[in-house]
Structures are given as structure tokens and as C-alpha cells.
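Consortium newsletter contribution from the modelling node. Members have asked for a concrete example of what our holo predictions look like. Here is one, prepared for the NAP complex that several groups have been discussing at recent meetings.
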Amino acid sequence: MMAADSGATVLEKKDDSPKIPEIKKTKFDVVIIGAGPSGYTAGIYCSRAGYDTLILSGILPGGQLVNTTEVENYPGFEKGVMGPDLMIEMRKQTQRMGTTIVDDEVVNVDFRNSPFKILTDSEEYEGRAVIIATGANPRKLGLEGEQTFAGKGVSYCATCDGPFFRNQELIVVGGGDSAIEEGTFLTKFATKIHLVHRRSELRASKIMQERALNNEKIEFHWDSEVIDIKGDQKMQQGVIKNIKTNEETTLDVGGLFVAIGHEPNTKLFKNQIDLDDEGYIVLKNKTHTNIEGVFAAGDVHDRIYRQAITAAGFGCMAAIDVDKYLTEQS
Ligand code: NAP
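And here is the predicted structure:
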């Protein structure tokens, strides 16, 4: 290197080599739609198996864990890990394995023939196999406080967050199996559960209803809705209203668990992939959908377990099924 005070004129080397336009790669062995734990895990396994793999992550990659705080039940983290940090690590690991990740939203798919076509606003991608890992979103109550106190009292997953609420009173909203199961589970930690349901009849299965109705720690608030969530740094109160009498009651609680169902992200696939009456993908055999070469993994088909670790497990299973499928094709 030339010394700075040498007095010599430093000439910038002119790059006059012909410009080669950058060719964006659009054809892959495997295209994975979605970048939650299932999508990233599928990416890791497909790339390690030697497949040219693309993840189309959507515009907000990371899935539901991006909206959580501490995750204590994902193996490998003795002291727990913050949800967004876990997803950044998964993304980096997936990229290190060689998966291409494009943060673009899929707007349409054509699964009529292989290679399958996956369209974003700006590009048309092709995959010899596709894994749908678009997840599901918990239904929201639609209250302003839900956003304000997300991760500060408001939760959508009792299994994930229950242990953070020891010795506190809590509200659980809903009347289905999830609300009853989660309410019952939360009695392990909470001093009292206020189960708020909009009707006077539960939708949950009889056996689960009976268990909850006989649980002394659960108080049912029938024909009621949560109308406000209050607090300072964290949630401290929930205001509920009886929709028959209009009576409002303020409950001093440390948390609110919303368990009013989930919505799988499957609108894109409606007329091509078999969905059940609630929109979840129906698996035909292992992780295969009704279209040979199109697979599904994670919460987009799993209405029961809905954990990051189970989603990751399904991602691994789908990738192994893809490997078998592509090997048989060649
Ligand atoms: P779900 O059965 O659809 O129940 C949702 C509940 O939330 C209903 O009680 C509904 O009230 C209420 N709700 C819906 N929107 C609401 C709103 N905006 N405000 C207030 N309340 C609202 O959902 P899920 O409980 O999540 O269960 C989903 C599926 O998974 C079901 O098939 C269930 O059997 C299954 N599951 C099974 C288990 C198990 O077997 N261990 C555990 C969990 C889930 P209404 O009743 O008035 O409609």
C-alpha cells in the first residue's frame, strides 16, 4: 500500500469490463413458502440433502415467535431465549446451509403441473417440490390493549407463557376446547382463572367442561366479553362486560389469555389444496397434500400441538418426504 504522505498521485482503477446483468435465480428444486420454525427447519434439511432450496419468507419473516418475548421450552437454551432472537438464529443457520431466502410475499401459486409456479408481485419462481409452511395466526379480540400489552400480560399460548404468571389472577377468553384446556392448565400457576365466554354454553367437549366446571380455581363469567385492558408497564386490569345486563366489572389480573381459535394462512391455496372446514390443510399421507409434490408442515395443518418445536419437527418430516419424492422422480 502506498504511504499517505508519499506525494504520489493515486489513480483510481477504472473498471471498464463489460457489465453482465445480474441474473436472478428463479428455478429451484424445492420452494418453501413461509419462514417460521417449520419453514426454516425444512430449509436446513433440504439444503443439507443437496437440494437447491428457496424460502419465500413473506414480508415479516419469523412467524409467531417474532411477537413473543422469552421462550423457555425450546430445547437447547438453558436460560431460555427471546423469540425474535431464536428466529434470527434459525434464519442464519438456514442461510449457512445454503438455502436462498427471499423476503417477498407470495401472491399466487399454480400447482397444476410440476414444476410448480409460485408468484410474488415481482417474480415467478419454480419448484420441483413445494413445502407450504405458512403457519396460522391466533384470532384476536380486536382491542387496542391487545397490541399495547402483547408480551406484557396478553398472550395467545398458555403452554408457552403460563409459567411466567405464577401466583396471579388471570383472564382466559373463549368457550372452546382451547380455552377450557388452557384455563385448566393455567390453574397450575395462577391463584384464580376468570374464564370469560360470550355465551352461556361452552363449545368444549363434555369431559373437559366438567373438569373445568368442577375446578375451584376457575370462575366462569357467562355472556361476557372483555372490553378493555388496562395497565402501566404491564397489564394490571381487565374490564369485562355482561352483554345481557351491560354490567361492567374490573378484574385485577396479571394476564389475559386469548383462546378464541386460530386462522391458518391458507387463502392462497384454497382452490388447489384440500382444506378442512376451518381452512387447515388436510394431509393425505405423512406430510403430503392432495397434490403430489406439494407438502405441508407446521401450524398450517396442525391444530393440536401448535408449538415451535412441533412445527420445527414437521418441517424436518416434510423435508425428508420431499427428498424421497424427488429421488423417486429422478
Ligand atoms: P373453537 O372451537 O373455534 O372455539 C373458539 C371459541 O372462542 C368459541 O367458544 C367461540 O365462541 C369463541 N370466540 C370466537 N371468536 C370470538 C370473539 N371474537 N370473541 C369472543 N369469543 C370468541 O377454537 P379452539 O378452542 O381453539 O379449538 C379449535 C379446534 O381444536 C376444535 O376442533 C377443538 O376441538 C380442537 N382442540 C382440541 C383440543 C383437545 O382435544 N385437547 C384442545 C384444543 C383444541 P362461540 O362458542 O360463541 O362460538
